[in-house]
Amino acid sequence: MRREFVIDGSKFNDLEGFYHEIQSVITKDLPWEISNLDGFNDILRGGFGVHEYGEPIKFKWVNFKISKKCLGYEATIKHYERVLKFCHPTNIDRIKLLLENAKRHSGQTLLDIIVEIVLDTDNSGHDCQLVIED
User: Fold this and answer.
1) By CB count within 10 A, which of 9, 54, 93, 119 is most buried?
2) Would you say 102 and 128 are in contact if contact means Cβ atoms under 8 Å apart?
3) Is pTM beyond 0.85 here?
4) Distance (Å, whole) CA 37 – CA 6
């Protein structure tokens, strides 16, 4: 049986708020906070919060339409602008390209990336299902 967690898109309006929502749903009093997408991926594997490492989980994402707007291209642009300031020099060209695509409303949005992380069970070592409710 999968442990189910509910993410409520009405409880956040940006990426940092999403991280806070995830922390309130699937972690327990960690001495650190999720501050990037890699950390989010790590949390999904389990062992850091309320589910064990490798335990199958299910996310029910309610108010998904709100998240789609809040984590769309504008948020994606802000994200890549921030990443560009701190990324390794070998990643600068790739991040610039992603930023330019986002400015043209092309390519993945933050929401697309988050959903991909949740569903990418083959490469990440976690077993997640996602149920979307608008």
Assistant:
1) 9
2) no
3) yes
4) 19
**pLDDT tens digits in sequence order for the chain, 134 residues long:** 788 999 999 999 999 999 999 998 988 777 888 999 998 988 888 888 788 888 889 999 999 999 999 999 999 999 999 999 999 999 999 999 999 999 999 999 999 999 999 988 655 667 888 999 98
What are the structure tokens assigned to 58, written together? 């299910």
What token pair was written down for 46?
């389990």
Delineate the domains of the chain, giving CATH numbers in brackets: 3-71+117-133 (3.30.370.10), 73-108 (no CATH)
Q: What is the DSSP code (8-state) at residue 89?
A: G
Residue with the two structure tokens 């997408």: 37
Alpha-carbon dihedral angle through residues 93, 98, 103, 106, given to the nearest 10 degrees: 140
Adjacent-strand bridge partners of 61 = 7, 132
